[in-house]
Amino acid sequence: MQLQDFVINDIKPLNITDKISDLQMLFNQLTYSHIPIQNNGIYMGCISETDAHCFDGAKSISDCNYTIEGFFVRPSTNWLDVLEAFAQNDSNIMPVLDKNNKYLGYYELNDIIHLFNETPFFSEPGGILIVEKGINDYSFSEISQIIESNDAKLLGAFISKMDSDLARITIKISNASLNEIIQTFRRYSYNIVSGHEEDSYIESLKERSQYLNKYLNM
After folding, report:
1. What pLDDT score was predicted for residue 144?
2. Strand 34-39 relative to strand 42-48: parallel, antiparallel, unpaired?
3. 166: burial class by Cβ within 10 Å (0-12, 13-18, 19+)?
4. According to the model, what pLDDT value does residue 199 have?
5. Do residues 83 and 6 lie in contact, with contact meaning Cβ atoms separated by under 8 Å?
6. Which of 127, 138, 185, 201 is deepest in the core (most CB within 10 A)?
7. Phi and psi based region of residue 18 (left: phi greater than 0; alpha: psi -120 to 50; beta: remaining)
8. Which residues are CB-contacts of 199 (< 8 A; sequence separation ≥ 6)?
């Protein structure tokens, strides 16, 4: 299914001449974080529910147009960039405009997340591994090489956290024992944050530590 098939157009943008009370009533009826606003048929942006309830309902939307947020995507925008736009604007509704800036409808966040959940990263069986390395030291080509050298396949990877000097990468690996892959990552100076499969190296260290404690306490 194409991403454009998820465009919904059951909400007509409110006009900037409408009352704030109309906007507030629409928010009370819906579960969306934002409502699109237009001026003479031209999309201007969205107003958030939080802002809408801060104003006197007797005022017109034009009196509060400085709160309008002009975010949108195109039909050609890929789903990952659409998902990023949702996150950047803290919204669960994303207006879609054509190349002439005509309002076509909107995407709903749940639909895009559902599309994301259907990708092999989530739908295929496998293990999740989270590793860390210096921000200037890691590379995705190296990560792929480490995984494939252990006869496994990379189903997906993304940077899940980035500090000033450290990058955290979340990796989905096809069904394979993670232990050998984890050991290889360690040899390449990656820190293992989490492996959703038993890490025999860590378990071995724990067992040795427990044995040493027993020995010292004899």
Report:
1. 94
2. antiparallel
3. middle
4. 47
5. no
6. 185
7. beta
8. 178, 179, 182, 192
Contact 8, 106 (CB under 8 A): yes
Residue type, 172: K
Residues, the chain: 218
> For position 179, what pLDDT does the model report?
87
Tokens of 14: 């409110």
Query: Which tokens in the block code for residue 148?
Result: 């494939």
CB 47 within 8 A of CB 69: yes
Cα 42 from Cα 13, distance rounded (Å): 10
Instruction: Please state whether the predicted TM-score (pTM) of the whole model is above 0.85.
Output: no
**CA terminus-to-terminus distance, the chain:** 67
pLDDT band per the 50, 70, 90 thresholds, residue 198: very low
pLDDT range class, residue 206, cuts 50, 70, 90: low
How confident is the model over 124-179, as pLDDT tens digits?
788 889 999 999 999 999 999 999 999 999 988 888 888 889 999 989 898 767 88
